[in-house]
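ok so dumb question maybe but i'm new to this and my supervisor (M.) told me to 'just get the structure for Calcium and integrin-binding protein 1' and walked off. so i did the thing. is this what she meant?? sequence i used:
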Amino acid sequence: KRLSDLLPKEERENACSVRVPKSRILTLPELRANPFQHRICRVFSTSDDGDDSMSFEDFLDMLSVFSDSATSDVKSHYAFCILKRARCDFDDDGTLDKKDLEKLVNCLTGQGEESQLSNILEESDIDKDGTINLSEFQHVVSRSPDFASSFKIVL
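this is what came out, is it supposed to look like this??
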């Protein structure tokens, strides 16, 4: 129903077989004010055209991650993917290091948070290699029961 509501009336009957343009996906309340809205579409879209349009299956995958019933592992996996796609992995090495996190905090807040950032990295970097990889990110998230509500900016 939610997907078909995004389509013109003449396409609603075939909602399960058409691709919904990204411009219509971005009208969803879950994405409207999200600073990562374009990256979220990119992560969930399977479009070969690079237009970030979504199939019915893509749409279901995206909304299932936004669902309250999604596990924190699923949410953290996609949050990490979205942060990487949002170029928060600024050096594109597959991890989030101190410089990446500084740039992320600056992008989100418009200001530096050096000391808080050092604490986040120190607590999250289990293998002490100076970066946060997916498993370390998921570990931190699993220790934070408020993750689902506090990280809604990404998911």
